[in-house]
Amino acid sequence: MAINKLESTAFLGNELSIFNSVHNMVVAVDYQGRVIIFNPTSERVFNYPAEKALGRPIREVVPFTGLPKVLQTGKPHIGRKFVVGNALYVVNRTPIIRNNTIVGAIGVAQEITELQHLAQELKEIKEVNGLLENIFHSTHEGYIATGNDGRILMLNGPMAELLGVTIETALGRHIREVAPDKRLHQILWTGKLQYGEVVRIRGRETVVMRVPLYNQGKMVGAVSKVMFQDVEQLLALAEKISTQRRNFSCPSITHNDNQTARYTVDNLIGASRDMLRLKETIRRVAQGPSTVLIRGESGTGKELVAHALHTASPRHRGPFIKVNCAAVPENLLESELFGYQEGAFTGARKGGQIGKFEQAHGGTIFLDEIGDMPLPMQAKILRVLQEKEIERLGDTRPRAVDVRVVAATNRDLEELIRQGHFREDLYYRLNVVSLYIPPLRERPDDLPLLVNHFIKKFNREFGLLVRGVSPEVWEMLCAYDWPGNVRELENVMERAFNLVEGDTIEVKHMPPYLQKMSQSKKRNLHNRTLATLLQEVEKEALLEALATAGGNKMQAAKTLGISRAWLYKKMKQYGIRG
Description:
Blueprint: H1 5-13, H2 16-21, E1 25-30, E2 35-38, H3 40-46, H4 50-53, H5 58-61, H6 67-73, E3 77-84, E4 87-98, E5 101-111, H7 113-138, E6 142-147, E7 152-155, H8 157-163, H9 167-170, H10 175-178, H11 182-190, E8 194-201, E9 204-215, E10 218-228, H12 231-249, H13 251-255, H14 273-285, E11 292-295, H15 302-311, E12 320-324, H16 330-338, E13 339-340, E14 353-354, H17 356-359, E15 364-368, H18 375-387, E16 389-390, E17 399-400, E18 404-409, H19 413-418, H20 424-430, E19 433-436, H21 447-462, E20 468-469, H22 471-479, H23 485-499, E21 504-505, H24 512-524, H25 530-548, H26 553-560, H27 564-573
Parallel strand pairs: 11-18, 11-19, 12-15, 15-18, 20-21
Antiparallel strand pairs: 1-2, 1-5, 3-4, 4-5, 6-7, 6-10, 8-9, 9-10, 13-14, 16-17
Helix pairs in contact: 12-21, 21-23, 24-25, 25-26, 26-27
């Protein structure tokens, strides 16, 4: 049955007065797509008079409209957006159906510019709230907030763990049912900030602050923050700050630090039979004048033993001078040790320079890595040991020195003598008293003492309160061979303190090479020898240290706690090219 324009207009005629009254835009077309309704709001928005629009094809009036598509398909367009000028609109377009026949289509549009702005603001507020919530739950400090009625509105994981509850069970309960912090509820009627209060929570003395919360001048609740989960943590931080202030205000102490022994026998950590014997030997040997040769692998603590010898000796008030024989270039070593006269060579300092032996007069000189000293210098050192005098470069006048010589090496001096790289007479002069420091793998009983020592040390330096290592980490530490000895263990513990999040060092805080070693042992222990596993781990550690140091071998050796000579040897052993 055909429906003409007159009939469709009659059908919609009674609604015109309603459409003309609404604030929304209303545009309707008949079955031919000609405009039959164009209300005043539409006139204003499209800047097109109704008398001109009525009866014309809709595309001539509103070119971008979707009403012709609705006529064609009979399918409505719901929630479509369009822009006119600077305003955003949402429109619903629906077919007009009579007796199952499409007789037209109508579009009703509403400006939503302000709503869109509000939605964007709401989205941004949600993002900020989400960020704040993430910060709230990610921080290591414990937080708990209550409303005016004292019921818990928010608390984060660290606070829940400290209180021994879960977040889910604590929310909505009264603060007095969950926390012993009764004074938090008192803020609700005093309104006063409380800072640095000591509160005992489950046997731990914590340091907290309590802050009232206001909204438009009205108190709406209170929040309590645990500043330190243990008073010891606060004391450790205070000691760290105090030390930094002393170092800052007394730079001369740092400047002269190289001339002062800093360690005593008590700083040698270990209670194994070998270490107790070594400590006792140091106390006895320190009292005499004899030259001492300290032997041991790199990283075992040879310099620390040298310090202890000096501080336990009658010379403890005199200077302690250290010289690394491998670090000073051969052409500079003689002037470094014996000094020089003005004009002794091109570039010599005006007035000359005193050497290390003269600086050590009345005290101790520590010749570290003596096995790397060039042969010509070995002869000069022998003369000093025999004659107790030195000659500056460019000077013929001998100068008497009263110095005790302590030497150290990680090299096999007997093998060097056989190879012609070390003087036998110097060896016997140095080896009057020989002290051997056992490597860490030979004294596993000392590992717990060393780990606890480094935990205490780095707690002070980092201002943390780490209580120990996890069982998995302990198993990992015990299974490792420690080629870098105590120095490597110290580096591993310091690395862990840079990454630790709570009060326990976990596997994830360990260096990758230790983690890989542990995983490898678990997978392959049944068909791999210990020697093979250790070699693989050692090679992996070398590669990682070289990569981290960008190929700098001195830095890689320092990271591993081994000498540069030992690094080269290991690189050659494993076919690592530098």
